[in-house]
Design goal:
269 residues; mainly beta; twelve-stranded antiparallel beta sheet; 39% strand; homodimer
């Protein structure tokens, strides 16, 4: 195992047929509890390290049932159905006996098929031509990602003005850099900050309720991307009575669409 | 209970604390087994009719683990976590003891908040100005929906030419018409035919692996839409080595974004 903080954060100790134990990581601490993207990566890792795993992740949905407390958790990943080339997983994370996360995953052995060119990513400046943030964040997990914003960064003034849209374009990778894999890609898919902060220029309480990631690349393709950046584009769709949803796409520097992702968040006010 | 075929199809008989029994419906038969949208509606209905239900659906993810056989199934819907205003569900459907579907749902009591105008739906002809299909479908479930295609209907010639995009715009409602609710909206979210048939003008084997629906309207708002049409827009994103994903939005005739939806399908060739 590398000594990268992501590897330390997602490490799990098997405790039985389908159960493992892990713990939250101070390196990925959020304002309250851990960064959701790392919790999602931990849930996926329970599948990835399961001895009965068939194939590679195709789809992951995680539902955040409660804020995790700092400390230990237990995660069960059960292969509910194993077919010839696909496998269906039910995942549940608990602390002190109470469910804090539910999830499902689909893994599959992929075959080569007709694969047309991906939808082209927007023409934007290359990562190293885009400035880094000037200061370290007070929120620790934010420092675990190198983010270079092309558009739609955090508001510079929180004056409550309606921006009318909520699109972000950003180059992202782990910090320090780390070779891409399914766990790190899951984390990166959750790096976009809440769309409502951007849309309203207002810091309102929020939390992701459910997040889905569809994986469009194999383990080998992710490894080939290595420590390269991903180009992420995210935008809110519906904002209605306490919940908003976000669509997102993630491309490699070479223009491969490696994942699409969606999430629904609650917000107050 | 109404005598609408949808109500008959989603009817479940409680068998225990979290378990109900249902059966597939000939009215919603697909080429093999039932229409996935109705299976998703049945899974959601196990939550909707659960005596411990809190609030209304916010998010639903269903994973199709196996083709359902025509006949009976058992569905368990367990509230894994109940908070003050949100509830997290784990759902599993079985036939002959084997898992055929896994799912998660989030329900919530919503409050009025800042809710900006929805992203505008495209300016298109009104439903009654768009022609109906000329003939009845040989696939029974298709006849359970009134679909009026504005763009991206089924290819008129299956000649294998790459259309270069896969966008469909269509007015949809139940047939016969039925007052909209969460169960019928879930079915309608899956009415879009496989994006790869449109993109490639080629009839290849396909099947939905995972579908997510985010609900942006309340039960009362859906009821107010009544028997009105929904405008649906769907488009494929990534098509890669056997799997493709689809994004979709559903608006009411009045322009309310009632749901966003995503799915990932396998395809052969």
């Amino acid at each position: 195992m590398s000594d990268h903080p992501l590897d330390a954060a997602i490490a799990l100790s098997p405790q039985g047929e389908h159960t493992s134990r892990g713990r939250t990581s101070a390196a990925y601490a959020n304002m309250i509890g851990p960064f959701g993207g790392i919790t999602a990566a931990q849930a996926l890792n329970a599948v990835l390290q399961h001895p009965e795993l068939l194939g590679e992740p195709i789809a992951l949905t995680v539902n955040f049932a409660a804020a995790l407390a700092d400390g230990e958790f237990e995660v069960t990943a059960r292969p509910a159905r194993t077919n010839r080339s696909t496998q269906h997983w039910i995942i549940e994370m608990r602390q002190g006996g109470a469910t804090v996360l539910t999830a499902t995953a689909v893994t599959a052995v992929r075959r080569e098929t007709w694969s047309p060119p991906d939808p082209p990513m927007p023409e934007v400046a290359r990562p190293h031509d885009v400035p880094l943030p000037l200061s370290r964040s007070g929120v620790e997990w934010v420092n675990r990602y190198e983010t270079r914003f092309l558009e739609g960064g955090l508001p510079s003034t929180w004056d409550g003005s309606d921006l009318g849209h909520s699109r972000t374009r950003v180059w992202m990778r782990d910090s320090p850099p780390r070779v891409l894999d399914f766990a790190s890609l899951t984390g990166i898919a959750d790096v976009f900050f809440p769309r409502i902060w951007l849309r309203r220029s207002l810091f309102v309480p929020v939390g992701t309720v459910s997040m889905t990631v569809y994986f469009h690349a194999s383990a080998a393709e992710l490894q080939a991307i290595g420590e390269g950046f991903l180009f992420g584009q995210a935008e809110g769709q519906g904002f209605h009575n306490g919940y908003l949803d976000q669509k997102a796409q993630l491309w490699s520097e070479a223009g491969q669409l490696v994942a699409t992702s969606h999430q629904i968040m609650y917000f107050k006010e």
